[in-house]
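Chapter review: from sequence to fold.
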Amino acid sequence: MAKGLKVAGEVDSYCTKCKMVLNHRIVSMVGTKPHQVLCLTCNSPHLFRARAPGERAARTSSAPGSSGPRSTGSRAPKAPSMAAQRAEQARAEQEQVWRKAIAGRAVNDFTPYKISHVFQEGQLIAHKRFGDGVVARVIDAAKVEVLFQDASRVLGQGQPTA
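The token string follows.
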């Protein structure tokens, strides 16, 4: 990085709009490094990027923090957190409940979803976007909770159509 960088000065940065390293005006800095810049070609503001994505920085032995070559091996995958494991387990259980609810049902057992219809708990519905579902509970006269394969969703019911 060149010496003497300051706000309102100029620096080369990768422009996320132009997709090239171009001249930019420094809008803000964090310490001695540019933080936010403004492209002088397209006038778009964005965070400072010293180089294009995927491009590696040139390694020099005098660079601070360069103690030698990095390992080129792939990183070991992170173990999922407990919260992620619980979320995955809940999703799997929900899908299992959904599968049991629709197992062995014929296509004509599913009522096409329309917001004007009134549904009952356990009723099977066919939604154009979310697919086949089962009414898990009636929340109130205007809402039902429907269990679909991927998630549980609250849908409207009993609404007049225009």
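Two observations follow directly from the output. The CA atoms of residues 60 and 113 lie 64 Å apart. Strands lie at 10-15, 20-30, 33-39, 45-47, 111-112, 124-127, 131-140, 143-148, 152-156.
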